[in-house]
Amino acid sequence: MPSSGRVFLLVASVIIHTLLVYSGETSLGAVCSTDNDRLDSASHKFLSDCDDTTFCSASVNGTCQPRLCRRDEFPFGFTNFTSLPPLCQNGTFCPDEGSGCKPLWTVGSACQMDRDDQCAPPPNWADLASNQNFNGSLCLKSTCTFANMSLGQPCILDGVTYIDLGPNGEQFSNTVTRHNCQTSQLYCDTSLQVCVPTKSLGASCGSDQECRSFNCGPGGVCVDPPETPRRVEAWQVALTSLSIITAMAVTVVMLTLVHKRLRLQRYREIREYYEEQISLRKSLSVLHAAAADRYLDEKRHFD
Ligand SMILES: *[C@@H]1O[C@H](CO)[C@@H](O)[C@H](O)[C@H]1NC(C)=O
Ligand SMILES: *[C@@H]1O[C@H](CO)[C@@H](O)[C@H](O)[C@H]1NC(C)=O
Ligand SMILES: *[C@@H]1O[C@H](CO)[C@@H](O)[C@H](O)[C@H]1NC(C)=O
Ligand SMILES: *[C@@H]1O[C@H](CO)[C@@H](O)[C@H](O)[C@H]1NC(C)=O
Ligand SMILES: *[C@@H]1O[C@H](CO)[C@@H](O)[C@H](O)[C@H]1NC(C)=O
């Protein structure tokens, strides 16, 4: 069971490492050699004889020294955030081991794995820069390269698979393929090894780099990345506004009509009341007149 043995070793090394960091014990001053600086074969994390807060000073008779620079705002392994080593200024970079800021490498020089930020930008960096490179530079196959290859030119493909363990020991792997074609208009075709145009939304794809949106969806078609803000079309805005205005107008008209109807009804009631009163008065006066006539008649009769 070679693979489960390796997994066990990995878990053990992670636990020992964590214990070392959280017990406050560091390898500061310990004897070391830069010959043991390496990348983990599965996760590609930088490893050395020293811990995450120190670096090894030399190949022979070396000791672990406090790191002189950091790459991240909150670097891994540090517990005292008031005494972090500094970030490197522009034009310099902090190597994986943290041995101090170094000037950027020129194109063709060796760089540390996937550290695009170690490579100096090309003169036309503003045209080549994209979110898939650092200011137009790339570290492909550990060599500084420009992302300047145009349509139909041969390209370099660099695929790296990162494997790590989840909290319950389950393995996660992620393969990232990078190339030196101009992004995001072009990508490096895996079989032809030349730069070809990226695919638009809805086209079928096999990996993220094939899509102009840099996101190959679960159905194997290019889709917008999840963080894309929703685009609202002009006709949708117009339709929504029209609907709102129509609804408001209809409400106002309905209310006016209902109000008018109610007023008319009330007016009719009042008119009916008055008419009734008038007819009552009329019949009363008729009754009066009849009674008076009768009285006069009878009076005349007796007289
Ligand atoms: C390493 O240390 C040994 C013993 O102190 C010494 O003899 C040797 O010269 C040192 N080597 C280097 C390269 O400093
Ligand atoms: C953190 O570093 C600062 C500055 O070097 C120091 O004054 C402080 O005592 C350290 N705190 C701890 C908990 O080590
Ligand atoms: C870094 O770049 C910024 C903006 O380009 C500039 O203002 C600043 O002076 C640079 N710093 C150094 C140390 O070169
Ligand atoms: C890109 O490189 C240019 C030229 O060296 C530099 O002025 C600019 O600040 C860099 N931009 C970034 C985002 O590093
Ligand atoms: C890309 O940059 C390299 C290094 O400067 C240069 O040799 C090559 O001609 C450039 N290729 C194109 C297509 O501009």
**What is the beta-strand fraction?**
15-25%
How many beta strands in the DSSP annotation? 13
Given helix and strand content, the structural type is alpha+beta
Bound molecules: 2-acetamido-2-deoxy-beta-D-glucopyranose
- Estimate the mean pLDDT confidence: 88
Shape: elongated
Please state how the strands of the largest beta sheet are arranged side by side.
1-5-4
**Fraction of residues in helix:** 25-40%
Q: Secondary-structure element sequence?
A: HEEEEEEEHEEEEEEH
Distance between the termini: 146 Å
Rg computed from alpha carbons, rounded to a whole number of angstroms: 43 Å
Count of DSSP H/I helices = 3
Poorly predicted ranges: 7-12, 18-24
General description of the model:
It is a single chain. The protein has 303 residues and is an alpha+beta fold. Among the domains are: 1-86, no CATH class; 149-227, no CATH class. The protein is built from 3 helices and 13 strands. It has helices spanning 2-22, 125-128, 234-302, and strands spanning 31-32, 38-39, 46-47, 54-56, 62-66, 92-93, 102-103, 137-140, 143-146, 157-165, 171-179, 186-188, 195-197. The strands form 6 sheets. The chain has a 3-stranded antiparallel sheet, with no helix packed on it. A hairpin with an 8-residue loop joins strand 6 and strand 7. The N and C termini lie far apart (146 Å). Mean pLDDT is 88; it is low at 7-12 and 18-24. One 2-acetamido-2-deoxy-beta-D-glucopyranose binds next to loops. Residues 1-23 form the signal peptide. It comes from Trametes coccinea (strain BRFM310) (Pycnoporus coccineus). The chain crosses the membrane at residues 234-258.
